[in-house]
Design a protein that fits this description.
four-stranded antiparallel beta sheet
Length: about 290
């Protein structure tokens, strides 16, 4: 069966939760599942390269059937084989490869060339969009709060602060209306100039300052814009927002709220743990975190 020779056109960056696409490939999988590839989709897939935001919840419908989307992942093809998720052997954008949204379903399937309507769970999408926007905002606030803890010049974030988030991040998980970010305060970070002395003692003050910044930014209710270089899955997309400290533009492939005011009572909680001698900082953002 012929594999796609173009990337999937995606409409989720603009906030679409419904859309129609044509079946361009059906790939039988183990466990009775089938990967349905459409030429266009509003469904956000999880990207194994940085799986911070998981897949949308969605359903497919065609003129003689329907199916729930049990998973939605980024796929890649060289024209000969289809690879899904972590099995993709190359980076997105590699010449000669095409990257697709793979809708995984069970049971009945549509036919090749058939028109399929994709309906995304709008409430779940909205909660994940709030979580992702809050994650960006909290990371910027954390960078700003920790800006005076550097003794060397390092990469700067979109507001011109030392980018602690980029340099220390170990994992990021977007949750409905929130997120969990894990940072490692290891030797490599200290060699880059980060001062960890007294960090535990200062943690309550750091958390308070971070939340003061969040409170002010959210109260400003600035609009959030997603700027896209194109409508294909691998086209670059940017989260943009105007904050009092300056214009922010962050490369991001996820979904987002339309304005900061939608985040409401979002706050961040910080906690330190030890992982085999390495200090680990966890930042949890949510509407009502445990204090």
């Amino acid at each position: 069966m012929t594999l796609p020779s173009t990337d999937t056109a995606v409409s989720y960056p603009a906030g679409a939760v419904t859309g129609t696409g044509t079946v361009v490939h059906l790939e039988p999988l183990s466990g009775g599942r089938t990967a349905v590839l459409l030429n266009a989709s509003p469904c956000h897939p999880v990207d194994a390269g940085w799986p911070d935001q998981g897949p949308d919840r969605a359903a497919l419908a065609w003129n003689n059937g329907s199916a729930a989307v049990v998973d939605c992942v980024v796929g890649g093809t060289d024209g000969d084989s289809l690879f899904l998720g972590a099995d993709i052997p190359v980076r997105k954008g590699t010449a000669g490869w095409f990257f697709v949204v793979a809708h995984l379903i069970e049971g009945a399937t549509p036919s090749l060339g058939q028109s399929v309507t994709v309906t995304v769970d709008a409430d779940y999408r909205a909660s994940m969009s709030l979580g992702h926007t809050g994650c960006h905002l909290a990371s910027l606030a954390l960078n700003h709060t920790l800006a005076d803890r550097w003794t060397k010049e390092v990469a700067l974030d979109a507001l011109g602060d030392p980018d602690f988030d980029k340099l220390a991040i170990a994992s990021s998980t977007i949750l409905p209306n929130g997120a969990v970010d894990v940072f490692r305060l290891n030797k490599s970070l200290r060699r880059k100039g980060f001062v960890s002395d007294g960090f535990a003692e200062d943690l309550p003050m750091i958390e308070s300052s971070l939340n003061d910044a969040l409170l002010g930014w959210i109260a400003g209710n600035a609009a959030v814009n997603i700027r896209c270089d194109g409508d294909r899955l691998t086209d670059r997309r940017y989260w943009e927002c105007s904050l009092p400290e300056g214009e922010v533009s962050i490369a991001c492939g996820g979904t987002h709220a339309h304005s900061l005011g939608e985040l409401g009572a979002l706050r961040a909680a910080l906690a330190l743990t030890d992982d085999d001698g390495t200090t680990v900082l966890t930042m949890t953002t949510s509407p009502n975190p445990e204090r």
